[in-house]
Inverse folding.
């Protein structure tokens, strides 16, 4: 009996040591990221897909000046959030992380991934939101033994931050893709309903897997990205493709209602909405930025492997801190830092709802 008590005490002490070690200076014990190329940090590298960023000039401003699989010149939004949360290092990709290292969290994001399983299929393999959730289940199965039992794992996971930034590819590489997909026949309202129904199931599943503090990014103004401006006509003197932004706005409005519903119905749930439109249009933009709709890198053209992405080993602008976009789809590090800063600590009341990430993790 005494030996059993000592063993249980030793296991509890070990668990507490692991947790205290992991959470030193961090605002949360772990950080899990779900999303697409805005957050991908290497998960697509081993996949057979056109959606890859494992070649120069991607990563030109990342430590070591190496391409890691991030679709930008340096850090992405997830990396910047990890810094604000006081993690000593970026959250590692699921594809390359095993053992105790996963206790600090994992990045499951995948370039071309969408809420719908078939979004992005035109580019090849990708880890859609449902596959990312399956990978998270596999992670949880490893966490329980590391912390001693499932109860300890549940308590631990309840304290973590979860960020979900996905949905752009459901529009870019599904609803508005060329040639048209079957979804293109739906009205914008009907397509948004389909997305929300699927996303609701996924966010409920994430809650069932132990998440309680969840920040969900809305879809940004993708009608203003260089590639969509190149592909679709602009009307009424607008600088952006208004029809695309209107359709995305319908989805975002329904997403806000979904977030409110989850917070009402799920015990102890703390979901919050990150308003990318408010962040993009409300208040001052990133200091020093002057180029708002041109890519910094030389991009691939129609007929190339991945039109709109950086040309492998192509030229790149020197004044990267003056550009919003690195390629025709993805923001520069300075833009990512700006977005993450407003998501973490709202500048305007409309940036987040009901709270920003800083308040969410307190």
């Amino acid at each position: 009996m005494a030996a059993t008590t000592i063993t249980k005490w030793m296991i509890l002490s070990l668990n507490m040591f692991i947790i205290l070690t992991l959470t030193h200076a961090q605002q949360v014990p772990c950080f899990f990221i779900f999303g697409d190329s805005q957050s991908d940090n290497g998960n697509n590298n081993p996949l057979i897909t056109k959606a890859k960023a494992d070649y120069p000039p991607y990563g030109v401003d990342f430590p070591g000046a190496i391409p890691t699989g991030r679709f930008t010149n340096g850090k992405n939004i997830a990396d910047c959030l990890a810094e604000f949360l006081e993690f000593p290092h970026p959250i590692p990709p699921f594809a390359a992380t095993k053992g105790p290292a996963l206790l600090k969290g994992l990045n499951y994001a995948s370039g071309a991934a969408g809420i719908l399983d078939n979004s992005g299929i035109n580019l090849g393999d990708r880890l859609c939101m449902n596959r990312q959730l399956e990978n998270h289940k596999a992670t949880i199965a490893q966490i329980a033994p590391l912390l001693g039992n499932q109860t300890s794992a549940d308590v631990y996971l309840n304290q973590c931050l979860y960020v979900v930034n996905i949905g752009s590819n459901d529009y870019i590489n599904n609803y508005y893709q060329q040639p048209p997909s079957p979804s293109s026949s739906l009205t914008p309202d009907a397509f948004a309903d389909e997305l929300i129904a699927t996303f609701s199931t996924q966010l409920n599943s994430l809650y069932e897997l132990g998440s309680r503090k969840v920040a969900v990014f809305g879809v940004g103004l993708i009608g203003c990205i260089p590639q969509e401006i190149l592909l679709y006509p602009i009307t009424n003197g607008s600088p952006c493709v208004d029809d695309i932004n209107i359709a995305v706005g319908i989805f975002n409005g329904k997403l806000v209602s979904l977030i409110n519903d989850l917070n009402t119905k799920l015990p102890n749930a703390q979901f919050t909405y990150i308003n990318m439109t408010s962040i993009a249009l409300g208040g001052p933009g990133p200091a020093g930025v002057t180029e708002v709709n041109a890519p910094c890198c030389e991009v691939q053209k129609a007929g190339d492997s991945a039109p709109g992405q950086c040309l492998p080993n192509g030229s790149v602008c020197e004044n990267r801190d003056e550009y919003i976009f690195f390629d025709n789809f993805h923001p520069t590090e300075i833009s990512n830092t700006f977005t993450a800063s407003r998501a973490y600590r709202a500048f305007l009341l409309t940036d987040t709802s009901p709270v920003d990430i800083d308040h969410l993790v307190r």
